[in-house]
Structures are given as structure tokens and as C-alpha cells.
Amino acid sequence: MKIEVFKTKAECGGAAADRGAEILKQAIAYKGRASFIVATGASQFDFMKALTQQAGIEWHNTTMYHLDEYIGISEDHPASFRRYLKERLVNVVHPGTVHFILGEAADPAAECRRMNDIISRDKTDVAFVGIGENGHLAFNDPPADFDTELPYIIVELDEACRQQQFGEGWFASLEEVPQTAISMSIKQILKSAAIICTVPDERKARAVKQCFEGEISTMHPASILRKHPDTYVYLDEPAAALLS
What we know:
single chain, about 240 residues, alpha/beta, Rossmann fold, 10 strands, about 30% helix
């Protein structure tokens, strides 16, 4: 795992986007297409903007996989991750194929099976992820399941995770934040050939310290990234403040 620290959020997101673009272009040049996983959230704003402004990516030759989505939320809800991705990525660069998780599906377990069937036929070249204030990776809150082989799973959101979503302004009250979500599993994220983890902001500093200098543990889900052979972590100075 390689960690780089930058002065500002914009520099952090820009460096992550430079690396991400390089990986996508190399995959397309080598095999004619690239598959990628993409996260959402306030921490990804600068990265997403920089990635969509990268020159030379043949976006029509890419396939995008959705990382996670709340259960019971429609696409037009302000907190919908599908809405986020459409506004900031899909409707900007138009990937050739897009696989969204349908959060309002009547049967979430069946929706997991549908997504599992799709992604199991592919090999992802890069996962663009962040980590939560509680150290979560995707919506795999502590204690995360490091063992399941299922690509997508139904998860319970813990209080810290829900508080973060409210605190970032996605919901008008904590009570409105859903208690469950569909998330890509830890093992499925780790199957990506490369992982780019972008983590700006001082409110992530404690999680950064625990995940990247503490014990690799299900209580600090993103710590598992240290076991992946090709992970790049991009931090701004406030997020890296507690690192020794």
C-alpha cells in the first residue's frame, strides 16, 4: 500500500484522479475495455470532478459498478447514490455500461442476487473508494464481514455511519437516515486489480490512524486495504494529521 499526503483536498483528489485515469487508459489499451467501481459521498467531490476532467479516457469503453446504495430510497431522493453518480459522473462522461443498485427494489435480497450475477462475470480493473469516519469501507460498518464470498450483501448501518450521513447534510434528520443498505462486500472490493482510496478532511483523521497504523481488524474495516497488493491512498494534511 502506498500513501501520499497533499496540502489541500483539491490536490488530493487531483492526484487520485491522475492515477485512476492512468489505470483506466492502460486497461483499455491492453484489453479494449476497463471495468471500475466507484464510491460516493462528500469526500469524493474533488476526486470525481478531477476524474471527469481527465483527457484521453475512452469512457465509452468502460463499465461502471455501483459500490453501495440505501435500501428504500428512490433515485430522486437528495441522498440517493444513483442520483449522485448520475449528476457527477454518468451524465458527464457517459460510461459505456452502468450497473446501478436499485435501492427501492421490492426484494433487496433478489437485487443482491441480480448484481452478484452481473459482477461475477467480470474482473474489475480499479475500485475508487473512500473510508468513513467509523473506518467503514463501502457500507461495511464495524464489525465488517471479511469472510463472505458474496459480491453484494445487505448490511445494517451503525449509529456512527448514520450520524455521518446526517452530518454531511444528506438528510434533514438522523431519523430519516435508512438503517439498511446494499453494499459491495469486502472480498469483492479486494478483487479489483487496483484500489484507489481518497480520504480528505480532518474528521477522517482518527479512522485513517486506526486503519493504516493500527491492527488489521473487522472493527476497522478499511484496515484490510493493507493486504491488497496494489492500493494507493490519497490523503490531505488534515486527514493525515494523526499519522506517526
